Amino acid sequence: MDNHEMIRIIPRLEFDTPNALQNALVKSDQIMGLLKPLRSGAQAIEATDTAAYAALGAIVAEVGRIRKNQIVPLWGPLLGVVDTVRDFLKLHRQQTESECETISDICRVKMKEYERNERNAAQQEQNRLNKRREEPVVVKPNLPSIPGYRKTVNYRVTVTDPKALIKELLRAYKRTDTKRVQFLGPFVCLDVKALESYARETKDVKKFNAAIPGAVCREE
Question: Domain map of the chain by residue range?
Answer without folding.
Answer: 20-102, 153-220
